[in-house]
Amino acid sequence: MPENNTASVARHIGLLSKHFRHHCDVALEPFGLTNGSYFYLIYVNYHPGCSLVDLREGLQADKALVTRMVNRLCEIGYISKSRRSEDGRSYSLNLTEEGHRVFNYVRELPSAWSKQTLAPLGEEERQTLMHLLEKVYTGMCVGDGA
Questions:
Q1: 3-class DSSP state for residue 95?
Q2: 3-state class (DSSP) for residue 94
Q3: 146 — pLDDT class (breaks 50, 70, 90)
Q4: What is the pLDDT of residue 4?
Q5: For 48, how many CA atoms within 13 A lie in the half-sphere containing its CB?
Q6: Beta-bridge mates of residue 92
Q7: What is the pLDDT of the chain when averaged over all its residues?
Q8: 67's torsion region: left (phi>0), alpha (psi -120 to 50) or beta?
Q9: 90: alpha, beta or left, given left = phi > 0 and alpha = psi -120 to 50?
Q10: Closest among 101, 80, 100, 105 to 91, alpha carbons compared
Q11: Cα diameter, the chain
């Protein structure tokens, strides 16, 4: 593949990623969340009672960043943390009632963005695009040893 086509793929993926982050940031701002913080709500929702270590490993994030973000989400009332009885140094994380309410809203963001983004394509084109993206991703993971 010529170099300019390779650069074009990277450019288009970057533009789509930037557009998605902006879409999320605008939608999440009223909740005091950012594109990065909403992944914490998603993880805790699907892993109730998880620890900070579980969250850090699940999101592949830095320990200090996870601690700061969890403390912030606790302060604004979306996550609760309670000491684990079996290990007083560790916490169990759960969504609060308000956290569940916000989660029910934010979980729709990726599909709403995808629907909007893919609107110019016909059904067959959408299926082809998804197939090709999955093929590229699978090839990338095999090449990286992931």
A1: strand
A2: strand
A3: low
A4: 59
A5: 9
A6: 82
A7: 89
A8: alpha
A9: beta
A10: 80
A11: 59
